[in-house]
Amino acid sequence: MKISTKGRYALRMVIDITLNQNDGYISLKDISERQNISKKYLEQIVPLLNKSGILKASRGNRGGYKINGNPENYSVGDVLRATEGSLAPVACLDYYPNDCERINECITLPVWEGLYKVVTDYLDGITIQDIANQYTDFADNYCI
Questions:
Q1: What are 1-21's pLDDT values in tens digits?
Q2: What are phi and psi of 88, to 5 degrees?
Q3: Is the CB of residue 71 less than 8 Å from the CB of residue 132?
Q4: DSSP code, position 71
Q5: Mapping DSSP to helix (H, G, I), strand (E, B) and coil, where does residue 72 land?
Q6: How far, in Å, CA of 34 to CA of 72, rounded?
Q7: Backbone angles phi and psi of 12, in degrees to 5
Q8: Quick one: DSSP state of residue 127?
Q9: Which of 70, 77, 79, 113 has its CA 20 to 30 A from that of 119?
Q10: 113 Cβ partners below 8 Å, 6+ apart?
Q11: Any idea of the CA torsion for 78, 67, 18, 117, to the nearest 10 degrees?
Q12: Residues 42, 87 contacting (CB under 8 angstroms)
């Protein structure tokens, strides 16, 4: 499994918004400058995060984006599923119940199910707030 640039940038974007949303709604221009990500690329990611309910938008002069609710309620897995689609390592695990015609004779299915469980448990076990807290702890303890 390989996470695309879109997924990686979406995660950075959501974390950036979490770290800065005390200032109100965050503009894509500000995120773009802090994260060194093209504003045009962020504009492609925003609809996916809005549709999934992770972000909420505000239009106007002080418009921008905020996390929709508490960052503790969103996991890395949520952000990646919103941008990447399924995290399943094989197509037959994209749907439940598994309707693969070879399900009863597939000797490798347990391998893929195990990998899928490990990946989803790991990614769903890390919240956006967890990452924001790690960054804050790091920034508070960093000195030159």
A1: 789 999 999 999 999 999 998
A2: -65, 140
A3: yes
A4: G
A5: helix
A6: 23
A7: -60, -40
A8: B
A9: 70
A10: 93
A11: -10
A12: no
Q: Is the pTM of this model over 0.90?
A: no
Neighbour tally for 32: CB within 10 Å: 18
Q: Which two tokens stand for residue 38?
A: 């093209």
Which two tokens mark 47? 């609809």
For residue 18, which of 48, 60, 52, 55 has the smallest C-alpha distance?
A: 55
CA distance 79 to 81: 6
| List of the chain residues with pLDDT < 70 | 137-144
Kindly report the backbone phi and psi dihedral angles of residue 102, in degrees, each rounded to the nearest multiple of 5, phi listed first. -105, 10
Pair of tokens at residue 90: 């094989």
Share of the chain above pLDDT 70, in %: 94
The torsion angles phi and psi of 57, rounded to 5 degrees, stand at: -115, 155
Beta bridge partners of 67: 55
